[in-house]
Amino acid sequence: MVTAAAYAVMSADSRFEKTTVQRRELGPLDVLIEIKFAGICHSDIHTARNEWGSTHYPVVPGHEIAGVVSAVGSEVTKHRVGDRVGVGCFVDSCGECDACRADEEQYCVNRATGTYNATGRDGEWTQGGYSTHIVVTEHFVLSIPDGLELDVAAPLLCAGITLYSPLAHWGAGPGKKVAVIGMGGLGHVGVKIAHAMGADVTVLSQSLGKKDDGLKFGAGHYYATSDPGTFTQLRGQFDLIVNTVSVNLDIDAYMSMLAINGTLVELGLPEKPIEVRAFSLAANRRSLAGSMVGGIAQTQEMLNFCAEHGIGAEIEVISADQIDGAYDRVVGSDVRYRFVIDTATI
Asked: In a 3-state reduction of DSSP, which class is residue 136?
C-alpha cells in the first residue's frame, strides 16, 4: 500500500484537515502518480458539503488532477515513469457495455467509478486529488502534452472536457453561432475552445463585468442578461447555446435565442428541476439537451487540441491550507477563473 498525505473533510460542516489515505498496491495495469496540482471544481464543494446528499465521510475531493508518473505496473504500456499525466472525473468503468465499447465510459451502463466518493471494484471508497499520490488503472490516465503546463492543464480534466464534449458533439465550428451562458470556471474555458474551433462566440453573462476577459478569450460579442433587451435583440440567433451555470434560469427566455434546429445544452446542475414550455421546443424545432464529461479517448483529444491551440484555464494557485477560503470564494463568484491547489503544500 502507498500512504499519501491528503486534505479531507470529516463531515458536511467541518473544515478541511490534513490526513493520510491508503492507495492500493500497484497492480499489473496500474499507474502510480505523484500529484502536482489539483483543480477545485464546484462538484467538489457540493460533495464536501453534502449538498447532493450522498457524501461518504471522510472524503478527499478532487477530479482535476495533473502530475507525473512515479511507478508503473508490469503490464503497463501507455505510460512510463516521468511522463506528465492527468486524471479526470472517473477512474474505472465496466469496459463491457455499449457505452464503454464506444469510448463513452462516462455513460457506462453499470456506472463509471468516480475519482472520489464512489465505491471501487475492491469495495473501497475512492479518494481524490487533494493528495500527494494516486493509483489509477492505465486506461484512465491521460497524457498531458508538453505544450500545456501542469497547473493550467489540471482544470481541463473536468472543466475543459465538460465544454469540449458538447461543442464537438453539436458541431461548433466555422459558420456556427455559439453562445456560452456564464463566464465562470466552466464558461471561460468554453469560450476559448469554441473560438479555437472556429465558431462565432457570444457570451451571455448577468453583467458586463467580465466583458474585457470574454473578448480576450475569443468571444466576438458579449451581452448582459440582466438587460431584458438582450433577449429581444438576440431572438433566433444561435445554432448552439451551452449553459454552464448551476442555478435555475428562465430557460424559455434562452430557448427563444435559438435559430431553427438550434440546441440548448444544459451543463450546470441546478438544485430544482428545469422548467420549459412545450412551445419553446416546438417553435423553430428547437432542442433542449444535456451533456456530461467526455470519455477517455475524447478527453485525450481535448488535451491535444488545447495544447495545439495554447488553451489553458485561467487559474489562481493556492496552498492546501487555503481550500476552505477558496470554496467560499467560488460560491461567491470571487475567482477568475479556477482555483488550483499546489499539492506540494499538503
From this structure: strand
